[in-house]
Write a structure and sequence with these properties.
The protein is α/β, with parallel strands linked by helices. Helices cover 37% and strands 14% of the residues. Helix 2 links the parallel strand 2 and strand 3. Strands 3-2-1-4-5-6-7 form a seven-stranded parallel β-sheet, sandwiched between helices.
């Protein structure tokens, strides 16, 4: 992939992608590999089996388990002792239901699989980014944190908390390590039917009314993975070198804050 504007990560950059086998993660890995970056794909074992990655190395882990996160970090360090870039794109929303019907176990699972996962991953992987040269982190949040939808309270809370947590860490690790966010609306990926590693049924019902959703999108279409990976590449590259703690909203105009 020829980047004549120098906006994508430089050739030879060492980049780890957590959630590499999801719709957004897999498209991102393909583009990074095409740009001659060195990529390690990290995801659930089931996800890696369902959607093998073109990255040179793949590491399986369970981000809800602190020991598994630490073991993943140790494996990554052996393959890639220094990171120039890190993308964390893992997460899932669960089933839509009123707050009074959410089982406690399901609430804990959503918080654990989103906010806790990203916090544990940063805790484990920030040392690989702190090598003195410029490094960039991109965290994938959700515009549901800014346009909350009924029935998804735990997920909304987790994604909003992710931004607050990440901005706090961004202040800690500056100036050599930058942390920014990409915040998509609905994207046409397996996530809309449960997420990679959680369902393999392409006919599983969507978690929302597509027709109603599109009436609220000024650009009048559903996002695809490439709509999100372009901004991620920008945040990983030198064109965003004066940005940290910032949020790029990829919602077709649904959110204009």
């Amino acid at each position: 992939m020829n980047d004549s504007n120098g906006l994508s990560p430089p050739r030879g950059s060492n980049i780890a992608v957590v959630g590499a086998c999801g719709g957004i993660g897999s498209d991102l890995v393909q583009k990074l590999v095409a740009a001659d970056c060195n990529v390690v794909a990290i995801d659930l074992e089931k996800s890696i089996t369902e959607a093998p990655s073109p990255a040179a190395h793949s590491i399986s882990f369970d981000g809800r388990n602190a020991k598994s996160v630490d073991e993943m970090a140790e494996q990554l360090k052996k393959v890639m002792p220094q990171l120039d870039g890190l993308v964390i794109a893992s997460g899932f929303a669960g089933q839509r239901m009123p707050i009074t019907e959410w089982p406690i176990e399901a609430i804990d699972e959503i918080i654990s699989g989103n906010l806790r996962l990203m916090t544990l991953c940063l805790r484990a992987l920030v040392p690989l980014l702190q090598h003195g040269d410029a490094a960039s982190v991109v965290l994938i949040t959700s515009d549901m944190a800014y346009i909350p939808q009924p029935g998804y309270a735990p997920y909304v809370a987790a994604k909003a908390g992710l931004v607050a947590m990440g901005q706090s860490v961004a202040r800690e690790v500056a100036p050599n390590v930058r942390i920014n966010f990409v915040s998509p609306g609905a994207v046409d990926t397996p996530f809309l039917r449960g997420g990679r590693g959680r369902t393999v049924d392409p006919d599983a019902p969507l978690r929302f009314d597509m027709k109603e959703y599109l009436t609220k999108i000024p650009l009048a279409r559903l996002a695809v993975a490439e709509d999100v990976t372009g901004p991620v590449l920008f945040l990983l590259g030198p064109g965003s070198s004066y940005m940290t703690g910032n949020i790029l909203h990829i919602s077709g105009g649904a959110y204009m804050g």
